[in-house]
Amino acid sequence: GENVEQHPSTLSVQEGDSAVIKCTYSDSASNYFPWYKQELGKGPQLIIDIRSNVGEKKDQRIAVTLNKTAKHFSLHITETQPEDSAVYFCAASPDNYGQNFVFGPGTRLSVLP
Amino acid sequence: DTAVSQTPKYLVTQMGNDKSIKCEQNLGHDTMYWYKQDSKKFLKIMFSYNNKELIINETVPNRFSPKSPDKAHLNLHINSLELGDSAVYFCASSPGNIETQYFGPGTRLLVL
Fold first, then answer.
1. Chain B residues close to A106, C-beta within 8 Å
2. Whole-number Å distance between alpha carbons of B27 and B53
């Protein structure tokens, strides 16, 4: 089955710096790659997603890139702010039905003021 | 408010008991899910229902039984609770195939 790896497991950056989180997946049939942000005591919330027919997508300070050949995708956050501190999860959708998300193990991002 | 809601938020119980967690979504979505998040924050899908029909049933002990009385509700019943069942359980919903999943706030289950 699908296996999603995520690095780093923890990341500390200074406010204003950029943060990059990388994920790799194993199933070449996966075609949908969402990123979720989970704040303390809350459920995960989608922040950006990308489908396999697109190489890059941006939404203000957040961008995601996808390399289908290498089977990896990355989350880029620019001009980080303290409120960006959270656990970030990548996921891949490996089946045609598209509902069985396999999540990465998460990255705890700390933005230091 | 439109959202995915879960009750209860916290659940503390003894080993061997039976408990239920309720989930409701008023987003008009066709598909609902249950996830388990362990102490290391690892999120794993347990079940998925589409229009009240079971679509995904991952390797989960049969002590866990989901029930979907209608498209807007997906409840999780757990029999004979064990210590290892302690975790945060998240309900989620999505409009359909390969779509964004919207998560509820979670139910924190502690089995003593």
1. 41-43
2. 18
